[in-house]
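Structure tokens please, single chain.
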Amino acid sequence: MRLVRRMWLWGAVVPVVAVAAALGVAVQVFRVVLERALDEALLSQAAAESVSLFDAPDGRPHLHVEPSPLAGEVRAFVPATRLYGPDGTLLGVFPPESPSVSERVLPEEGPTSRLETRTVGSGLRLRVLTVQVRSPQGVPHVLQLVASLGTVDQAVGTFSSVATVLALLLGGVLIGIQGWQAKGLARRLHGIAEQVARSRDGGMVAPIPAGEPRDEIAEVRVALTDAALRVRAAREGQERLIARAAHELRTPLALMRTSLDLALRRERGAEELRTVLEENRREVDRLASVADALLELSAAAGAALDVQAGDLRVLLDEAAAGARAEADLRGVSLRIEGPGEASCRMDAMAVRRAVDNLLANALRYAPRGSTVRLELAHRGEQWEVAVQDEGRGIPENHREDVFTPFHRLERDAGGVGLGLSLVREVARGHGGDARVAESTGAGARLVLTLPMR
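Here you go.
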């Protein structure tokens, strides 16, 4: 079912049907209330009339409405009153032209009053109150009050008509409002669908219209726009990574092919062939390093982290111990600073790999006789791991570039240019980040931040 029809159904038709049902119940309740009020009026008038039926000077029973000075004003709506004698004959009636319910009513043993509804003539409904009354001498008489239910039926009919018209008007207004709302929602949802289709096909992401309401749909659109931009950035980064990886792999492959072609052009001695094979072996090692680094970067970017509670200080001590042999080989001292315990929720293997890369990068550029410091500090709700070397440092205009895959400040410094990219992937996977910070002295200072929780 389309959105417009669904909103018409649930936003207009169903509420109007519910209102109509409620009005039907209200009409019946209204009728009961009016009839009860009429019954109470009949009982009140009968009580007043029965008390004074026999107060004439001669003791003759009589009705008090007819001689009243207001008889002419009330005869249009006052209940018809009839008085019957002990033998059932009619002794008095007011007004005289009132419809007759019974020509003769005899006193009966039983309840002193009885209420009933009768239909006379052409469907006229009457409410009849019959009251047994005794004279001061104990002679039984019957007092009968008759009121037409036509006024009640008329009031109920008027109420029903007005309620029906209002329900129809309400239904029309609701259908119009729901249709207008549904068209607006459908237009906005179509815009979101078109945006998703454009982003899927690589097109530009349209900005959110200025006049669009800031509601849940707008939040969805903002989230989809952000996701589309992130997907595009990831796709572009992937394309750049593939292009750079292809370039990094093409260079050693070209060198290997060239050296092999030269070796095959003419007969070569064993020593020359050994030199060619050694060169190719170095290029193979280089290719293997690039492949391993790409696999690590792919794992860091796509694998789900196994986050568990651990001690970050213990992890740093183990990383420093693992790097100490390389530091001794390069004539560099390695020092670790910070608190003795550091509770942190993390993927220990991923963080260890990131710290190893930071230490390897620092040792690669640290001059002989210098010191590489591995520092741990608590900053707000984060742990900050900093690696400081005393090398030539990183120029300010390259502080973001060093986290780009295959970017190397010095081509002859070793490595494949993926270590710091992996560090940032691990940090952001944990909700932290990696950056180049201002160094307190000579060299570079790289900082990895990890949330404590």
